[in-house]
Design goal:
This protein is mainly alpha-helical. It has a domain at 134-167. Helices cover 47% and strands 4% of the residues. The protein has seven helices and two strands; from the N terminus they run H-H-H-H-H-E-E-H-H. The longest helix is centred in the first third of the chain and has 26 residues, at 3-28.
Length: 167
Amino acid sequence: MDMRSVNSSLLSIGRWLRRGADAVGRQVFPPICLGCGALVGTHGGVCADCWRGLRFVEKPLCDVLGTPFAHDMGDGLLSAEAIADPPPFRRVRSAVQYDALARAMVHRLKYNDRTDLAPVMARWMARAGGRSTFPQIFIGKTHVGGCDELHALEHRGKLDDLLRSAA
């Protein structure tokens, strides 16, 4: 038996063991709400009460601070706070309003090592940010985009020129 087939066999055994451990884990640890701990239908979800308590930040909002506006006045608008006291960053965005439930979930992630919250919160943040790749990259004052856009610039031979112009 050559090394390739040994490695392939070990990978298959590892996948089989992982699926088995996941199945046992789902039986031993039933799915609970990430917000309050009540039983729910699937792992990584929140109950109906907690879902109602999460207030997602949606458009219309300030393009810099992400502060929600009461009425849609078009894209590109800034809040009075962003105009009066411009921040030292280009953009900040929140997925949900930071009230009691959101604060409790963030604190559980940060201080209680509840890493099971990270994938759910990451999906909320990706949805809120509207970007498909992270981190969002700036070269000088030019917004490049994410990792995919950076690779595309390199592939088209334009990345070096952009780096030189920013230097």
